[in-house]
């Protein structure tokens, strides 16, 4: 099947989902009301609370939520064939991610634009706040670990990408300082910056940087592991630098790269008319491969549904919503944008990387090979799409690697910074003042735990498969989404509206995540993986805790709804 | 129509397109970043304001005499600050609200 046909089919399904299902959510589930002033108006402060045009806000929201995760998950999951991955991405986007992202904005807007963490305490209960902190702690730990491995693998596979990534740091600082100090229009310096970044790709091709000379073939000091250690040293230092000096300008350059990469994928697919050579269902997978059910639903988290989006939806987007009806466009369409990125990843790994089905089976011969090479497969696929547009393929591959590494590195920067805050907050709760009051100690903890996890995945017989670590990251992401969906479901129920549209993805997500955790736990114990097994067990306990809290909160909410059944209008209490 | 007039009109149209592109870029990508800069600047102002107003918060400020000079510069947005900090009213009657 030509890739463009898949794009058109998915495009139509996403359109129908947005047109009809999000319309149903807006009218019947979230009951949007444009006469109700939003916090952007009632709490306007010119910084966080600013009424913003919905197209502009969509741009802000989408560039905040899109990153490397919706690329890596589908790139691994096509191991089971493109059929299951595509169905989950499309159905997840329409019936789960859209409901979740849209709902998180609405609930936050109705609660003075409070963050999902605060809402968890207010709507679900005080205990749930601790649960939220713990889930976020494990989410950030695993985010930092998996992205360190992703970058390490890409540096090893593409030594030409190292120099551009290194030069991107002073380039970002330079652009940031120039625009900040001159207060001039940003377009020309930004375009110059992006062009210079891509010129450094040619420089990188002339001067590839490899650590193979100082690394060993196997053991702890492999080339990938040395890169991982260097990355964590960098993030520890970067997390101490004010955000406006490095993190924000880098994020700003990335937002340009996001639109450029999406344009390249879209145009490359259109011009190249490539055919999908991967099978719909991979019937040549080795017999001992992990089953797609239920692991598919935690392998693809971002791209189908991601709890991280609730943090953005309630953290910044809800503060800028001009009117309630804009939440549908910004939230639901933002989820569709993320789904499109996941679709791009599926296309790159099924139509872009190779020309024949036999070659594809070689690239996805077993789960370990598939997961270790997933990001490189995406990079090569996008490189092929860019080559369709006339860019030399070798240069195009480095371009794609630079885009993915830039996303992943910025996520790590942010992740370590946020993890430091979470470590400090947890230390404050358990009264370990030495940690809660020390930036250095909390920063070290934020870096060392994911570093250990990132050093363990091996290749061949050493360590465990990277895809397993990725799946654990997926479970924490899905639990965060589960918590946000619980908050949304409780709020919808309290307001005497039918919560079924929220409950179905909530129950599905919690059941699949718990199932996947049990499945993996049995495997880890059988294979004596004594780092992963306890980690999996802890996340399983958090999942059970989430189920209990959600059930109790929903029961209380039904009680409140019954008590208020005589009221003609929802009261302030039910609205809160 | 002269060749010069046609070129001028083409130049005007290109300039209009460029300005629209610049405006769109500013709104879509740059404003989010500038918002981050404003947020960071405000966070630093908040820290300074908290230090200046330690005594109002019930904490002894050993350098209150020295920092008194800086207070008028931060009074202008004092009301917005204490509301943002979660207190609808602040200080003695007549001081602010």
* Percentage of residues in helical conformation of chain B: 55-70%
- Beta-strand portion of chain A reads under 5%
Shape of chain B: rod-shaped
Using the CA coordinates, give the radius of gyration of chain A: 23 Å
**What kind of sheet is the major sheet of chain A?**
none
CATH-defined topology of chain A: Amino acid/polyamine transporter I
Arithmetic mean pLDDT of chain A = 91
Structure annotation, total helices of chain B: 4
Unreliable stretches covering 5 or more consecutive residues of chain A: 569-576
- What structural class do the secondary elements of chain B suggest? mainly alpha
Count of helix runs of chain A: 24
CATH superfamily of chain A: Amino acid/polyamine transporter I
In short:
The complex is a heterodimer of chains A (576) and B (97). Chain A has 24 helices and no strands. Chain A has helices at residues 3-29, 39-42, 54-65, 69-77, 82-109, 116-124, 126-157, 162-182, 187-206, 223-238, 247-272, 292-299, 308-315, 326-352, 357-363, 367-372, 374-388, 393-429, 433-436, 439-455, 466-494, 500-526, 532-563, 572-575.
């Amino acid at each position: 099947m030509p890739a463009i046909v898949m794009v058109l089919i998915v495009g139509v399904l996403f359109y129908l989902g947005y047109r009809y299902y999000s319309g149903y959510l807006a009218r019947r589930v979230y009951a949007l009301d444009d006469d109700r002033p939003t916090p952007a108006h009632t709490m306007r402060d010119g910084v966080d609370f600013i009424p913003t045009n919905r197209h502009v806000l969509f741009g802000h929201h989408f560039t905040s939520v899109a990153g490397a995760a919706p690329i890596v998950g589908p790139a691994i999951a096509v191991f089971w064939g493109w059929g299951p991955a595509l169905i989950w991405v499309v159905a997840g986007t329409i019936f789960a991610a859209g409901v979740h992202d849209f709902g998180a904005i609405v609930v936050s807007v109705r609660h003075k634009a409070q963050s999902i963490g605060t809402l968890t305490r207010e709507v679900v209960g005080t205990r749930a706040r601790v649960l939220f902190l713990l889930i976020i702690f494990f989410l950030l730990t695993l985010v930092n670990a998996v992205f360190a491995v992703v970058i390490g693998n890409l540096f090893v596979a593409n030594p030409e990408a190292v120099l551009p990534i290194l030069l991107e740091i002073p380039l970002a600082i330079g652009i940031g300082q120039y625009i900040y100090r001159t207060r001039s229009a940003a377009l020309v310096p930004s375009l110059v910056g992006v062009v210079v970044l891509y010129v450094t790709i040619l420089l990188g091709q002339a001067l590839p940087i490899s650590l193979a000379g100082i690394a060993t073939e196997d053991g702890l000091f492999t080339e990938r592991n040395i890169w991982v250690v260097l990355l964590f040293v960098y993030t520890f230092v970067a997390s101490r630098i004010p955000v406006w000096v490095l993190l924000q300008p880098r994020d700003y350059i990335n937002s340009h790269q996001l639109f450029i990469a999406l344009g390249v994928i879209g145009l490359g697919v259109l011009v190249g008319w490539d055919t999908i050579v991967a099978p719909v269902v991979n019937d040549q997978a080795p017999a001992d491969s992990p089953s797609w059910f239920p692991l598919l639903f935690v392998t693809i988290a971002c791209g189908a549904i991601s709890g991280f989006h609730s943090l953005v939806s309630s953290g910044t987007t809800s503060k800028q919503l001009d009117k309630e009806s804009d939440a549908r466009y910004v939230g639901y369409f933002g989820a569709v944008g993320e789904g499109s990125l996941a679709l791009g990843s599926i296309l790159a790994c099924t139509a872009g990387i190779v020309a024949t089905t036999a070659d594809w089976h070689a690239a996805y011969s077993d789960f370990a090979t598939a997961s270790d090479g997933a990001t490189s497969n995406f990079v090569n696929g996008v490189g092929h799409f860019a080559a369709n547009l006339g860019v030399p393929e070798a240069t195009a591959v480095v371009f794609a690697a630079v885009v993915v590494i830039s996303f992943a590195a910025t996520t790590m920067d942010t992740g370590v910074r946020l993890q430091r805050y979470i470590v400090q907050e947890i230390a404050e709760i358990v009264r370990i003042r030495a940690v809660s009051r020390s930036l250095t100690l909390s920063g070290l903890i934020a870096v060392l735990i994911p570093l250990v996890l990132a050093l363990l995945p091996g290749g061949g017989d050493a360590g465990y498969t990277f895809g397993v670590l990725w799946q654990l990251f997926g479970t924490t992401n899905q639990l965060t989404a589960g918590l946000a969906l619980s908050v949304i479901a409780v709020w919808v129920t309290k307001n005497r509206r039918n919560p079924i549209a929220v409950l179905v993805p909530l129950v599905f997500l919690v059941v699949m995540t718990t199932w996947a955790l049990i499945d993996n736990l049995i495997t880890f114990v059988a294979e004596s993986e004594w780092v992963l097994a306890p980690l999996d067990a802890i996340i399983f306990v958090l999942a059970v805790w989430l189920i209990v809290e959600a059930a109790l909160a929903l029961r209380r909410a039904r009680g409140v709804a019954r008590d208020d059944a005589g009221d003609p209008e929802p009261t302030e209490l039910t609205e809160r | 129509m002269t060749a010069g007039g046609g070129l001028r009109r083409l130049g005007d149209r290109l300039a209009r397109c460029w300005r629209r592109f610049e405006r769109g870029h500013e709104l879509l990508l740059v404003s989010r970043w500038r918002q981050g800069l404003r947020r960071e600047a405000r966070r630093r102002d908040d820290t300074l304001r908290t230090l200046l107003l330690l005594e109002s918060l019930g904490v002894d400020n050993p350098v209150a005499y020295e920092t008194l000079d800086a207070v008028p510069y931060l009074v202008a947005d004092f009301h917005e600050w204490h509301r943002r900090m979660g207190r609808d009213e602040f200080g003695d009657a007549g001081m602010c609200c």
